[in-house]
Structure formats: structure tokens, C-alpha cells
Write a structure and sequence with these properties.
This protein is an alpha/beta fold. The chain has a domain of about 200 residues: Rossmann fold (3-Layer(aba) Sandwich). The chain is about 45% helix and about 15% strand. It contains 13 helices and 8 strands. An 8-stranded mixed β-sheet has the order 1-2-4-3-5-6-7-8.
Length: about 300
């Protein structure tokens, strides 16, 4: 080989090797499905993992999780809503838990199509209560805006779309095509696992072994790509116009915030009060961003006060 070819080969190895090695060290998505309760639902964009709890014929609540934690983050909330008289449907967003990772941007259109398919299959065409956590709140709000007749109420837990914080590495990767993709594919697992450990320190979790479970997610093929794409698209949306439109339609809304949330901007609740003054707001002072699994009792109390009016 000529020196030029040697240099080209070395450069290719440097560029391709690290992200390829990181990918090879991850488990296939099929392995993530082993032992999961529920069923796989075939939708236009791929297979979605869905679970349903509660008695048939009850009002239906559909829970939409956030950026990094699959639907199991709602285990305690789902159990509590069943006790309150709801049938509860949960699904894993694309690239999380047991769901496929389709190609293309993880944006409003992709996520609302998925949610529409889940509601059509599991709710029998009846209006549902949507409960969204973080990015899931933005997805739920987007669905409610597009499908007002299918939503009886919207509860948002630490909702995204009104300002959020990112560390420097995540901000750079999100804003920088190509190089950002390479860095994210190679190194993001380290940061995601560190974030999982930090989240576990926010307080006792209702999810057993949550740090280990999130670490395993970060080692599942498609997960990191899904997270980066969501950061660039769904989480980049300003949800103020959507929430303003829902307020104008009179949709009952509840927002539950963590008083010590380090990810959602502190001014988010004030923004919501300005654009949707009719929305009920509750702050769990001791909670961080993980309030659905660290403070499920407080969340369920807020929901029990909100849902009788639906």
C-alpha cells in the first residue's frame, strides 16, 4: 500500500472504530424485550411495546414517558391510577424499552403517530386522560392539539418544551451535525450512565434497581441514537403555541413540578401561568426531575384532585 492509502486506512479506523466498537458492545433490541409484560403492537413505523392495567370498561389513562426512562418509570403511578378507577395504558417510545428504533427524525409527527396508534388499539375510540412526563408531556400536548376529541384531560409531570437545561457535551452534540453524532455514538453512554446514578441520588425510587436498568438501556442498540434525535427535534420545540391553543379550547390541564428539578428551567411554571392561566399547577418541593418514581404519592394526590372534574 502507498503511504496515502495507509493514512486513509488509519483515518478510517480512527473514525469508524470507536463508534462501531461502542455499538458492538450494546445488546440487540430483541434482548431488551425478553421478560417484558404486555404485548408488541405493530404500527406503521415499527413495533411498539404496550402494557395495559386495570379493569376493562373503565375510563382510560394513557401514560407517556420521557427522554431516557421507558414506560416502567410509571410503575407506581400506574398502580395508583388503577386503584383510583382507571384502566392504564403505557407504551415505550421509539428506541426505548421494547419498542423498535425506526429511522428518521424523532419529532412531533413520529411520536404523535405512535401515540395515535396506541390509543386507537387500546382505548377503543373513547376519549382518554393523557399523563405525560417530561418530553412525554410535550408529546401528549402535541397529540391533544391535533386530536381534541380524543383527549378528556392533560396532566403534565415536569413538562418539557418551556425551557430546559443541558450539560455542555449534550448541548454540543445536539447542535453539531456529523461531529456531534460521532461523539455521541462513542461517548454518550458514559454520560447517560452518570446521569442515571445522579438521578438515583434524588431520593428513594419506586423503580427497583433503576440505576442498573437505565445503564442497561444505554447499552441497547438504537437507544442512544433515539435520545440524540429526540434532543434535536421533539425536545427542541417551543411548546408555548401548543399549550396556548389547548388553553383556548378549554382543555383541562394540570402541571406537576419538582421544586428541585435541575433539568427543567425554573421559569417554566411562570411561562405556563402566562400562556395557560387556566391550567392547575402543583409543586412538589422536595422532588427533582424524577418525581414520577421518587414522589409517586404526591403525583397521585395531584391527579386525584384533578381527574374528578374530567
Amino acid at each position: 500500500m502507498t503511504p496515502g492509502l495507509w493514512i486513509a486506512a488509519a483515518l478510517a479506523a480512527v473514525l469508524v472504530g470507536p463508534p462501531l466498537f461502542a455499538w458492538l458492545m450494546c445488546r440487540p433490541r430483541q434482548a431488551a424485550r425478553q421478560g417484558l409484560a404486555g404485548r408488541m403492537l405493530r404500527l406503521a413505523d415499527g413495533r411498539t411495546h404496550v402494557t395495559k392495567d386495570g379493569l376493562k370498561g373503565r375510563r382510560v389513562a394513557v401514560l407517556v414517558h420521557g427522554l431516557t426512562t421507558p414506560a416502567w418509570v410509571f410503575d407506581a403511578i400506574a398502580a395508583g391510577l388503577v386503584v383510583q378507577g382507571w384502566q392504564v395504558v403505557r407504551h415505550d417510545l421509539w428506541g426505548r424499552g421494547g419498542s423498535d428504533t425506526p429511522g428518521g427524525a424523532q419529532n412531533r409527527a413520529l411520536f404523535t403517530r405512535q401515540l395515535a396508534g396506541v390509543i386507537e388499539a387500546e382505548a377503543g375510540g373513547k376519549p382518554v386522560l393523557l399523563v405525560g412526563y417530561s418530553m412525554g408531556a410535550a408529546i401528549a400536548a402535541a397529540f391533544a392539539e391535533a386530536n381534541p376529541a380524543q383527549v378528556r384531560g392533560l396532566a403534565m409531570l415536569a413538562p418539557a418544551g418551556l425551557g430546559h437545561r443541558m450539560d455542555g457535551f449534550t448541548r454540543f452534540c445536539t447542535a453539531t451535525p456529523v461531529l456531534g453524532d460521532w461523539l455521541w455514538a462513542t461517548f454518550s453512554g458514559i454520560g447517560l450512565r452518570a446521569a442515571a446514578r445522579k438521578a438515583a441520588r434524588q431520593g428513594p425510587s419506586s423503580v427497583e434497581n433503576i440505576t442498573a436498568r437505565l445503564a442497561l438501556e444505554s447499552r441497547t442498540r438504537g437507544y442512544r441514537r433515539a435520545v440524540l434525535s429526540s434532543l434535536r427535534h421533539m425536545l427542541a420545540e417551543d411548546m408555548r403555541p401548543t399549550l396556548k391553543a389547548l388553553e383556548a379550547r378549554g382543555l383541562p390541564m394540570l402541571a406537576v413540578w419538582g421544586g428541585e428539578d435541575g433539568l427543567i428551567a425554573g421559569a417554566a411554571s411562570k411561562k405556563l401561568a402566562r400562556i395557560a392561566p387556566g391550567a392547575e399547577q402543583v409543586t412538589v418541593e422536595a422532588a427533582g426531575h424524577g418525581l414520577p418514581h421518587t414522589h409517586p404519592r404526591e403525583v397521585l394526590k395531584a391527579l386525584s384532585g384533578f381527574t374528578p372534574r374530567l
